[in-house]
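User: My collaborator sent over this chain with a note saying "see what the structure looks like." That's all I know about it. Can you take a look?
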Amino acid sequence: MGVNEQMEIILVRHGETPWNREERVQGISDIELSEEGRDQARRLATALREKAFGSIYSSPLSRALETARIINIHHGLSIQVREELREMDQGVFEGMSFRELMEKEGEFLSRWIKDPASVTMPGGESLLDVQRRAWPVVEEILERGENSLIVSHSFTLSTIICGMAGIPLSRFRRVSVSPASLSIIRFEGGSCRIEKINDCRHLA
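Assistant: Without extra context I'll predict from the sequence alone. Here is the result:
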């Protein structure tokens, strides 16, 4: 890939939504930011104000795109909206509370906890499905060789980080990301290094 001597990919998870607060499965359900989520996005924007990046990529889902737009207030770039960066389709679980899942889907959750890479959400996607559809966006950024920002979702970002760092999807929880968190992957001399992961200090 045509990677510059030095470049960064900045990975941001969208701010909080009402469903995050209610502990519901969001997936591809198009849930907007809460007021707290908008405040988190503004704090992210301040943290990234002096960061130099040439492009912004965002999931089309409202919670991610609004986060990207708030960050972009300080940069004035054209946001590239990519369907490939949406969250994992969680099928029949969409909208369910975590408590409902534990009560009704104990067997599935046991398999998910034991080996998340081996399961597919009923009526939805697997982690590998998500990684495969999101990865071409990463490759495009690497080919362009410029610092870039990706605003996306928990599972999508975790699979991207796993792909960059060579971490198997079965261990994706090692790189889980919180709402409005910031992770930075640096590419230098052909090597890849995780500089920050799940950084939430700007929210303090």
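A starting point for your reply to your collaborator: The chain has a mean pLDDT of 95.
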